Amino acid sequence: MQLNTQTTDDVLIIHVDEPRIDASVAIQFKDTVRGLIADGPKQVLLDLARVDFLDSSGLGAVVAVMKHLGKDRQLILSGLTPNVAKVFRLTRMDRVFRIHDSVDDALGAPGAAA
Amino acid sequence: MMGGAVSETRASVRFPATPPKVRECLLYLREWLHGVVDDVGEVELVLAELLNNVAEHGYPADTGGDVSVTLEVEQGSLRLEICDQGGVLPEFLMAHKTLPDPLDLPEGGFGWPLIHALTEDISYNRKDGVNQLQCRMPLSAGPEFGMTEPV
């Protein structure tokens, strides 16, 4: 599971360097990300720009990460590729996530990096 | 490396039903799909949901009995057929068309509603211990499947 992190302006950025978040890696993904966010900035930005496939197991893992952060912290998503964006749209889960086009866009957004 | 039988209008592959093999199967079929359908990602998603169901629920834990996939261009659409010799597919699961409420932050329950949203004519048969699930998907992107205007 290739995940790279960087911290900028009180935001923990996690770049997912995996082409697929599917049933074969969903649990590993969830556990690894949970480890990375154990303590740290209130805002976590999950950069999915390199992910070109996400199935319902992968979506469930992303939701699990958001729930793990709790009410006081926030999960933001960026860089959804067309296939990934479609899964969020079809399941209407795009309504419960803050989604930005890119990491730069997310960091520049009001309230994102205050 | 996964092997199967491929022609211009038909591709089939058989493999042990485990999540890593499902991934391998999808990567294997992707090249064929690129020559056949506009939206390869949609077909990949439907196949992932159907095959992961077999991998995760069809056979006793981790036994990974075989599953076979056949894709065929037929009457202007793509026919998908999945066969396995695992347990009976409960009808109530297959009939599940309603998405979970996003506000409940669901971690599952998306699979069948996604399959229903992206396919038509889903049918399930069990005969002589073999599960056969079939459905159809459009070849070309455009209006939502089944919603095309009459000419």
List the helices and strands and how they pair.
The complex is a heterodimer of chains A (114) and B (151).
Chain A: E1 3-8, E2 11-16, E3 20-21, H1 26-36, E4 43-47, E5 53-54, H2 56-69, E6 74-78, H3 82-90, E7 98-100, H4 103-108
Parallel strand pairs in A: 2-4, 3-5, 4-6, 6-7
Antiparallel strand pairs in A: 1-2
Helix pairs in contact in A: 1-2
Chain B: E1 4-6, E2 10-16, H1 19-34, H2 40-58, E3 66-74, E4 77-84, H3 91-94, H4 111-118, E5 120-127, E6 130-138
Antiparallel strand pairs in B: 1-2, 2-3, 3-4, 4-6, 5-6
Helix pairs in contact in B: 1-2, 2-4
Give structural notes.
The complex is a heterodimer of chains A (114) and B (151). Chain A has 114 residues and is α/β, with parallel strands linked by helices. Chain A has one domain: STAS domain (Transcription Regulator spoIIAA), CATH 3.30.750. Chain A is built from four helices and seven strands; from the N terminus they run βββαββαβαβα. In chain A, the strands form two sheets. Chain A has a five-stranded mixed beta sheet. A two-stranded parallel ribbon of chain A has the order 3-5. In chain A, 40% of the residues are buried. Chain B has a single domain (4-138), classed as 2-Layer Sandwich (Heat Shock Protein 90). By secondary structure, chain B is α+β, with helices and mostly antiparallel strands. The termini of chain B are far apart. Chain B has a six-stranded antiparallel beta sheet, covered by helices on one side. In chain B, strand 3 (66-74) and strand 4 (77-84) form a beta hairpin. The relative contact order of chain B is 0.17. The A-B interface holds A 20, 22-24, 52-53, 55-57, 59-61, 63-64, 66-67, 82-83, 86-87, 90-93, 95-96 and B 18-20, 22-23, 26, 41-42, 44-45, 48-49, 52, 55-56, 99, 102-103, 105-108, 110-111, 113-114, 117-118.
